[in-house]
Each structure stands twice: as C-alpha cells, then as structure tokens.
Design goal:
Helix content: 40-55%
Structural class: alpha+beta
CATH topology of the largest domain: Heat Shock Protein 90
Order of helices and strands: HEEHHHHEEEHHEHEEHEEHEE
Number of helices: 10
Radius of gyration: 27 Å
CATH class of the largest domain: Alpha Beta
Largest sheet: 5 strands, antiparallel
Distance between the termini: 28 Å
Length: 353
C-alpha cells in the first residue's frame, strides 16, 4: 500500500496512525495518535521509533515480527508508555508499506474501545432477544387475560351481594393493570422524530420533574458544559430516557443523597458500530448504594429490578429510546457512586459526526 500524496486522509481517521520510514524514524503522527499517546506529533516526528518506544518490549517485538515476516501483525491489550506519561492500553495493527518513504504504518486503537464495542454488541443482542421474548409473552398473555376480565364482569352481574362484587372488582382491576403492563413492555411504538435539541433544555425539564416528585433529602446538581452544540434527536424521547435513568437513581438513594447531571464532549467514540470524532456524553451520577454485583449484567433486561415493587421497565425502555436516537448507554457502579453515561453523536454541517 503506497503512501498517499497527501497525509490529510489520515487526519480523518478515528484511529491513531503513526508512520515509520525505512530508516526506522517516525515521520508522521495523526491527531488521534497524539491524543492517545499523550504527546504532540511535533515532538515525535524525526525521532527514531526505537528511541521513543524502545522500553515497550511487546510493541517492539510486534514491529520486529512485521519487519521479519513482511506481514501484517495485530496485537491486543498492549501497554504503551512514553517518557513517564501514564501508560495507555491499546490494540495495535502494524502494516508493511510498499511506498519509498514509508516502511510501516502503526494503527492504534484504545483497548477500552474494543471492549465498549463488544459490550454494545452484547447489549444489542440482549435487546433483540428480549423484544422477541416480550412479543411472544404478550401474545400468550393477552387472550387469556381478556377472558379473565370478561368472565369477572359477567360474574359481577350475577352477584346479588355488593360485598361479593368487591372481589370481582379486584380481578378486573388487576387484569387491567396487567394489560397496561403488557402495553408498556411493548413500547415505544412511535419512531423518533429528530430535530435540533439542546441537551441542557432536556436536562432542565428532567430536573424540574424530579424536583416535583422527590423528597427534600435529594439534591439535584448541574455540571454542564454550556458550549456543547445541539444534537439531532427526538426531544420527548430523550426526556423520557433521561428521566427513567435519573428516577431510577433517585429511588436507589432511598430519599437521601446527591444526583449530578453532567455534560461533556467525548472524543473518538464508537456508537452503533460507527466511529465519531466528537460525541455528547451525558453522565447521571448518584452516590447511592450502587447496583448489586448479581444484577450488573442484567440491568437492561425487562422485568429485572433490584428494588422491591419495581417494574424493571425503566432502564430497558431508556436503552431502547437512546438506541432509537443513534446513541448508546453504559454504566459503572460501586458502593457510593453509580454513573450512567449516555452518548449521542454531534451533527456537523454535512450531517456527519
């Protein structure tokens, strides 16, 4: 693969690219690699690759293998550290080049990116399986449920004593409650209607709703980056998704604690198998007890709840709404700190993030 006349194409890549010439000197570093490695390309260009990376034995071994075999070499979970900077765990693909100037191209990806993509793929697979299960469940339950309700109504008309009708009313009301639950399991029916959305307006709406329904022992704090641009999304669906996650956090704190709504720009983010140079990151942070270890792999499953009386529908619905708006949701939790992070791509003038 010959080196293109212009290096501008490498600047468009989300992965870090470092080019090494035949003499073993670095002659190009793109901006993604600068961010990943933590050093300016101006400091790296012209230096011998071994002088910069020589202490990273696994990386040097991979480069030597590519040099000896003249074949592409890929290594995962390589720790890369330069001049006392914090080590970065990366995946690296080393490609032998045919051009006269370039001998090797090293392409770096953050290791957590690979794990995040795998997690998102797993979540999507879980979602599809859950939806299929719910469709089948709804079909199996609706017909007998309607029969139970109809029989209770007929029985009520035959009963002479008012006190006995109380029992048929219980049956009817519980049948209606189950019917409502089944409808909620199958939501959302409506496809998103995207428009320009200011995420902070969404968060202010969520905050006002939470303040109206939460006890005085809960503090809801803002930590906004007001310079963030608008995103393309369905505002009402975003409000519902964020409200579900935030309400779940408030309930986990049992009426006393601190909830933080934080916005930031995130760089080099993969959402739904698409790499975005910039994305919105919305963090919903609480200082509650944390998610039990046994539930952490199932929080987005329908009907799974760690709270007595919980329906287990809030987080699965939030995940569905976020995914419908081209976003992704993930979380990390320990006692005293749980963070749900929601990502959405930014739109540029060309419509691409």
């Amino acid at each position: 693969m010959a080196l293109p006349a212009s290096l501008a194409a490498y600047e468009l890549l989300a992965t870090g690219v470092l080019l090494v010439d035949g003499a073993g000197r670095i002659f190009y570093v793109n901006s993604a690699a600068e961010t990943l490695i933590g050093l300016s390309g101006a400091l790296l260009v012209g230096q011998a690759f071994e002088a910069v990376f020589g202490r990273n034995t696994e990386l040097m071994a991979a480069l030597n293998t590519a040099r000896a075999t003249r074949e592409t070499v890929t290594e995962h979970d390589l720790p890369v550290q330069i001049n006392g900077h914090a080590p970065a765990l990366v995946s690296c693909t080393i490609t032998v080049q045919d051009g006269p100037e370039c001998a090797f191209m090293l392409e770096f990806r953050p290791a957590d990116q690979r794990l995040r993509i795998a997690r998102q793929e797993s979540i999507r697979a879980q979602q599809e399986a859950s939806r299929e299960l719910l469709r089948n469940l709804a079909h199996e339950i609706k017909n007998p449920l309607g029969g139970i309700r109809g029989a209770a109504q007929m029985l009520e008309r035959e009963l002479a004593r008012e006190s006995l009708r109380e029992y048929t009313q219980v049956i009817i009301k519980e049948a209606d409650r189950l019917q409502s639950l089944m409808e909620r399991l199958l939501t959302p029916h409506r496809l998103p209607k995207p428009s320009a959305v200011n995420i902070h307006e969404v968060l202010e709406r969520v905050r006002s709703l939470l303040l109206a329904e939460t006890p005085h022992g809960i503090q809801i704090l803002r930590d906004f980056d007001v310079s963030l641009p608008e995103i393309q999304a369905d505002a009402e669906q975003l409000i519902q998704a964020v409200l579900n996650v935030a309400r779940n956090a408030v309930q986990a704190m049992n009426g006393r604690g601190e909830l933080v709504l934080r916005t930031r720009a995130a760089r080099q983010v993969t959402l739904n198998n698409k790499r975005h140079r910039l994305a919105l990151r919305l963090d919903i942070i609480d200082n509650g007890p944390g998610i039990p270890e046994a539930l952490r792999g199932q929080v987005f499953f329908p009907l799974v709840s760690g709270r007595e009386g919980g329906s287990g529908l809030g987080l699965p619905l939030a995940q569905t709404l976020v995914a419908q708006n081209q976003g992704a949701i993930e979380f990390e939790s320990r006692p005293g700190r749980t963070v749900f992070s929601i990502y959405f791509p930014f739109e540029t003038a060309s419509g691409k993030a």
